[in-house]
Amino acid sequence: MSSSIDPSFSITPIGRIHTPYKEKFAVPRQPRLAPSASARIELLGDANSPEAIRGLEQFSHIWLLFLFDQNLAAGWKPTVRPPRLGGNERIGVFASRSTFRPNGIGMSAVELKGISQEGNQTWVELGSVDLVDGTPIVDIKPYIPYSDAILNANGGFADNEPDVLPVIFSSEAQIALQSHPQRHHIQSVIEQVLGQDPRPAYKKNKDDNKEYASHLFDLNVKFKVEMGSTSVINAVNQYFIHVTAIERF
């Protein structure tokens, strides 16, 4: 018995996520690699109801299904070059977790920290995620350990956790962070994110003289990778940069 698929089928997001990652660059390539970086889902429309998530608090982890909305217009190709293979070797898109996919759908298993209510707004509180701030969430499903956790599974070319670089803060960066009200928390997140070496894959295990920048929280974090470690050069308030740019022009 055959069935037809309506090519006009569409998906309506049920929420959007709020994370420290304000741009694609430096977002961890998997969840839980930056355990200090918590997140939350703002439920939308009919999904914004305590009834929709009644009983979800029984689970320690959940599956998030989401859209790679910033990549949808770019399309996709049958093969990709995963960062874990150095960005040089091509494999099939379905043998990867590339963000450039036929339907732009991603999924992550994340820690559920709780449910909160602020007026008429329902929030789902999460642990570490690998999503850009504002990513549309299209579904939430409970993580079932006896079924979803498979012992002795083979992880292919991504069987081992990535190496982590030591992160060193310059005196200028330390001074910049001292006045931030969330200094210790933000410093932990910066260490965990930049320790993953978010540079392009072909730069892995290589020193270069290039200065990179990542927008984390409300900060523009500048860094370099040298001598096998990441050096945080500065962490400037993004609002200050924005105002300065307006005043200059």
UniProtKB/TrEMBL annotation:
Keyword field: Methyltransferase, S-adenosyl-L-methionine, Transferase
InterPro entries given in the database record: TrmO-like_N, TrmO_C, UPF0066_cons_site, YaeB-like, YaeB-like_sf, YaeB_N_sf
GO MF annotation: an example: tRNA (L-threonylcarbamoyladenosine(37)-C2) methyltransferase activity
The keyword Methyltransferase is annotated on this UniProt entry: yes
Domain TsaA-like, chain residue ranges per copy: 11-152
Parts forming coiled coils: none
GO BP: any one term: methylation
Gene3D superfamilies: YaeB-like (2.40.30.70)
Pfam families: TrmO_C, TrmO_N
PANTHER family recorded: TRNA (ADENINE(37)-N6)-METHYLTRANSFERASE
Family: Belongs to the tRNA methyltransferase O family.
Stated name of the protein: tRNA (N6-threonylcarbamoyladenosine(37)-N6)-methyltransferase TrmO
Gene field: tsaA
